[in-house]
Design brief:
By secondary structure, the protein is of the alpha/beta class. The protein has two domains: 179 residues, Rossmann fold (3-Layer(aba) Sandwich); 50 residues, N-terminal domain of TfIIb (Single Sheet), CATH 2.20.25. The chain contains six helices and eleven strands. Helix 3 links the parallel strand 1 and strand 2. Helix 1 crosses helix 4. The longest helix has 15 residues. The radius of gyration is 18 Å and the shape is globular.
């Protein structure tokens, strides 16, 4: 897969800087553990079926590097050059080619058996129009019969009592995290307070637009994709009304009406 591509206008996504990129792997260490990562890689490798895969928002290669080690050719699109620089410490451009650009409009050459987007990252696109374009961009890159996969949380709206402005998602000795959500615009901000070794506290925030599973299905339909599977996690647990996350799979039809 050549690394030549078309990169277009930057989206409304937050742009991660060099300092954030350098700290990313350590700050997200829990997402790199075998019990978290292996089921995701297993799931994606099965769907790729030996064909090439494209990761939107490839980041530092948390998923792409072990997936490529399984023999799946992986390419990526990533908005942040500093994140790509961190990826290059693990894999060369020949091993995992990456184009710097946004995942709603940037294109890479070739067709893929699998396009995937993990760890809630579609929410980084902060308008509905951009999220629809992300689905269309996935469909644009898929070979007939290929699949688009996203991993996404289910908004915890039911946990909001009247008048409350935020809901916690992580409370631990080292980290306090909570989301503020706007019910009208579906805009949100994740707030992170991290206790450092020297006793100080570092604050960080990231902005997003939350999406409901049914809204994802409509976006997929607009992109010409058909639903194939929805489970609660990478292990394949059933998706229910109590699920707090989902892994959803849509397929590009083999032909019109297929």
């Amino acid at each position: 897969m050549a690394a030549i591509a078309q990169a277009r206008a930057v989206t409304s996504s937050d742009l991660w800087d060099e300092d954030t990129a350098r700290r990313y792997d350590d700050a997200s260490a829990g997402m790199f553990t075998p019990e978290v990562l292996d089921p995701a890689v297993d799931f994606l490798a099965r769907l790729a079926g030996g064909g090439p895969a494209l990761e939107f928002a490839i980041g530092t290669g948390r998923v792409a590097v072990p997936l490529a080690a399984r023999g799946v050719p992986v390419a990526g699109i990533e908005l942040s050059q500093p994140m790509v620089d961190q990826l290059r410490r693990k894999a060369s451009a020949a091993e995992i080619p990456v184009v710097v650009g946004d995942m709603a409009t940037t294109t890479v050459p070739g067709e893929f058996s699998l396009v995937y987007l993990v760890f809630n990252t579609i929410g980084n696109l902060r308008t509905q129009d951009e999220q629809v374009e992300c689905f269309r961009n996935a469909a644009r890159h898929l070979a007939p019969g290929g699949r688009f996969v996203i991993e996404l949380w289910v908004p915890g709206i039911r946990r909001f009592p009247p008048g409350q402005a935020a809901v916690p998602f992580d409370v631990s000795d080292r980290h306090l995290g909570f989301d503020t959500l706007d019910m009208v615009t579906q805009q949100g901000t994740s707030h992170h307070y991290t206790h450092l070794a020297d006793g100080s506290v570092r604050y960080g925030a990231s902005n997003f637009r939350y999406i409901w599973p049914a809204e994802c299905d409509l976006m997929a339909r607009l992109a010409g994709l058909v639903p194939e599977q929805r489970v609660a996690d990478w292990h394949g647990a059933p998706f229910t009304s109590e699920s707090e996350s989902h892994v959803s799979v849509w397929r590009k039809p083999l032909a019109a009406g297929a």
